[in-house]
Amino acid sequence: MDAHCVWEAGARLGEGPVWSPSRNALFAVDIRGSRLLRYSPADGRGRDWPLEEAACWLVERADGADFVAGLRSRRLVCLTLDGDRLSMGPELLRLEEDTPGNRLNDAMADTAGRLWVGSMDDAEQDALGALYRVEPDGSPARVDEGYTVSNGPALSPDGRTLYHTDSPSRTIFAFTLAADGTLSGKRVHIRFDEEDGYPDGMTCDAEGHLWVAHWSGGQVSRFRPDGTLDRVVRLPVSNVTSCAFGGPGLDQLFITTAAQDAPAQGTPTGEPLAGGLFACTPGVVGLTPGRFGAP
Predict the structure, then answer these.
(1) What is the predicted pLDDT for the residue at 263?
(2) Residue 22 placed within a domain
(3) What does each C-alpha distance from 193 to 1, 68, 171 come to in angstroms?
(4) How many CB atoms lie within 10 A of CB 141?
(5) pLDDT computed for residue 90 by the predictor
(6) Domain interval for residue 9
(7) What CATH number is attached to the domain comprising 264?
(8) Is 103 labelled as part of a ligand binding site?
(9) What is the pTM of this model?
(10) Going by fewer Cβ within 10 Å, which terminus of the chain is more open, N or C?
(11) Count of domains for the chain
């Protein structure tokens, strides 16, 4: 199966795709380009907004106040889009004030309204990153550590398994998730070979299969619940960053990519669509995106 480019967004580092049912649109961020991205499948149009500070991810809020965004400075803030007017603030939380070389890198909300937020070493050298749980009332807890570049996280349909990745070690971990948000039983779920590239962003479908983007691998792979490979979606770009189900029926898989570190255009291996937003119809549906805050 192949994915096709639906918007040549030119993202330096496209990341964090999330479907907004209320806006019937796919949102994402360009971390290195400090932009908010929006794609509307109904008319096939893309739109972007400059951000005063780079956002690393977005999650919709349960109170209807648009999004909570994780910023490069490790702050969580409200992000409001009123028509075509974008505003940032107020601040909700600060993480890792004692680790200025870190930044946030990926997040998701579960069905209880909790956020799961990863951090990373912005220089991608040291295992200074961690995984946090942020309760609906905004109280944080550091629940795992030792990540150089954290990615994911993703949640199984029954809410009992949380997946999280350390990209440089090419390892996707699985945790048992209790109803109260406690993690236990950390274990290696999938380990990439060198020729696979690096596991990046990911999402689960309604059948419990895990879809994983391959940085430096040019594809998204679907893995069965036991961690074995089921199928592959190929892209004409090397650096595939994340994926999310969207569309009114959650039957479209949207895939973000990066122009950063891609082969130069005009060369035999150039990638003119690097940084674009891609999509495919995989024949399965995704899960309703979680929202942050009390349900």
Answers:
(1) 78
(2) yes
(3) 21, 35, 10
(4) 13
(5) 87
(6) 4-280
(7) 2.120.10.30
(8) yes
(9) 0.96
(10) C
(11) 1
